[in-house]
Design goal:
Blueprint: H1 2-11, H2 14-17, E1 26-28, E2 33-34, E3 38-39, E4 43-46, E5 51-52, E6 57-59, E7 62-65, E8 69-70, E9 75-77, E10 80-84, E11 89-90, E12 95-97, E13 106-110, E14 115-118, E15 121-123, E16 128-130, E17 135-139, E18 142-143, E19 146-150, E20 157-161, E21 164-166, E22 171-172, E23 177-178, E24 183-184, E25 188-190, E26 195-196, E27 204-206, H3 219-226, E28 231-233, E29 236-240
Parallel strand pairs: 1-4, 2-5, 3-6, 4-7, 5-8, 6-9, 7-10, 8-11, 9-12, 10-13, 11-14, 12-15, 13-16, 14-17, 15-18, 16-21, 17-22, 18-23, 20-29, 21-24, 22-25, 23-26, 25-27
Antiparallel strand pairs: 19-20, 28-29
Length: 248
């Protein structure tokens, strides 16, 4: 069914395609517009006025847009649910993906009037929530929800998945990096080129810290403490953390 719906939405004007889709899993409201984009999802709900531009590849578990918009040339692909609330916007050439092997379905939520600019990368191995009026400005910011521990004495490695939460009214500068498990409080501003490797609980402007050695880090101990996961892939283990949120 989803391939048939994708075919209709790609070739026909949205106003005509919506009249030919009878499944309850696919709802397209009035005044919605979908350009020449591949929309291949198991569940689709576009409220009145939602917009999807041209030359996007959207292939995820579900897409819900409450009058939000996706512009052009974005790749949105993987095992996750995607929700765009009222007024939220994704501009051009962003890459939002999850790995081919992912034991759990994750989710991406853009809250009211949040904005993703141009050319950013989002890793949906685990969940990402972007708060209302938060902005990913400039170019080439990366948000990661998984990391690895590598042994220093053997080939062992362990993958650890942790969600990322961006608070309301946050502003993320160009070429920033947000690491797995990070939560940014409301009103946090990351200067261009900053790396957020830990959660920030106090609102304000943060700029890049100097490079430093993390002393007494023992990857062998970190691997042993993390091996509670039931999932394995090749030669490494996966430890997956997710948010307790409603993913309907």
């Amino acid at each position: 069914m989803k391939h048939f719906v994708a075919f209709l939405l790609f070739l026909l004007p949205t106003s005509i395609a919506r009249l030919m889709i009878w499944s309850s899993r696919y709802k397209i409201g009035r005044n919605c517009k979908i350009g020449f984009s591949l929309v291949l999802v198991d569940k689709l709900r576009l409220e009145n006025g939602a917009r999807i531009g041209n030359l996007n590849i959207i292939s995820c578990c579900s897409l819900y847009s409450n009058n939000g918009s996706i512009s052009h040339l974005n790749i949105i692909k993987g095992k996750f649910d995607f929700r765009i609330d009222t007024g939220a916007t994704i501009h051009n050439q962003n890459k939002i993906t999850s790995p081919k092997f992912n034991p759990n379905k994750s989710s991406l939520t853009l809250k009211e009037c949040s904005r993703i600019g141009v050319g950013h990368t989002f890793d949906l191995t685990s969940d990402i929530i972007i708060g209302k009026y938060a902005c990913f400005a400039g170019l080439h910011t990366q948000v990661w929800t998984h990391s690895f521990y590598y042994s220093q004495t053997s080939s062992r490695r362990c993958r650890v998945d942790k969600p990322v939460i961006i608070g309301d009214y946050c502003n993320i500068g160009s070429r920033s990096i947000i690491c797995p498990g990070v939560t940014l409080a409301n009103g946090v501003c990351l200067g261009a080129g900053s790396t957020a490797s830990k959660s920030l609980s106090i609102p304000g402007l943060y700029v890049q810290q100097s490079l430093r050695l993390i002393e007494n880090f023992n990857p062998e101990k970190a691997i042993e403490e993390s091996l509670s996961s039931e999932y394995t892939l090749d030669e490494y283990h996966i430890v997956h953390h997710s948010l307790s949120v409603d993913k309907e």
